[in-house]
Amino acid sequence: MSAWSILDYAELTGKNKIVEWLDGLPAVDQAKIDNRLLKMVGSAVWPDKWVSRYRSPGKLHEFRISGMNVQYRPLGAYCGPRRYIILAGAIEKGDKIPKSDVDTALEREKRVHKNERHAVPHQF
């Protein structure tokens, strides 16, 4: 039994926005991200170096995953006991995540609260 459930944000049409983001990344970085998420699924406690609260309104958190010269920062939120939803893919540049990525994650968080069907199991 997994310690955690990782979910992706999806449109009600079925389009998984997180899979779309991952599919646009280099294959080696996709594998790194999925490998980290698999470790997180089986971990009782996540180290601070893996995930931390993001400095924004709302309850966003950022995963910290290094790729090939890229700092990936998928944004998400806790959505129940041992459930975490990835709301938007993001890349940190100059110690900042683009405001548009933060805004997207915040808007998607609102949609998930209104309709749980936006939350689908992560596709490894």
Structure commentary:
The chain has a six-stranded mixed β-sheet with strand order 2-3-6-7-1-9. Strands 4-5-8 form a three-stranded antiparallel β-sheet, with helices on one face. The longest helix is centred in the N-terminal third of the chain and has 16 residues, at 27-42. A hairpin with a 7-residue loop joins strand 2 and strand 3. The chain is an alpha+beta fold and 124 residues long. The two termini are 16 Å apart. The protein has one domain (5-121). It is built from three helices and nine strands; from the N terminus they run βααβββββββαβ.
Radius of gyration: 13 Å
Helix content: 25-40%
The proportion of strand residues reads 15-25%
Mean pLDDT: 93
Ends distance: 16 Å
Question: Which short descriptors sum up this protein?
Answer:
single chain; 124 residues; alpha+beta; 3-stranded antiparallel sheet; 3 helices; 31% helix
Q: Summary?
A:
This protein has 124 residues and is of the alpha+beta class. It is built from 3 helices and 9 strands, in the order E-H-H-E-E-E-E-E-E-E-H-E.
Give the helix/strand layout.
Blueprint: E1 5-9, H1 17-23, H2 27-42, E2 51-53, E3 61-63, E4 65-66, E5 71-72, E6 75-78, E7 83-88, E8 91-92, H3 99-114, E9 119-121
Parallel strand pairs: 1-7
Antiparallel strand pairs: 1-9, 2-3, 3-6, 4-5, 5-8, 6-7
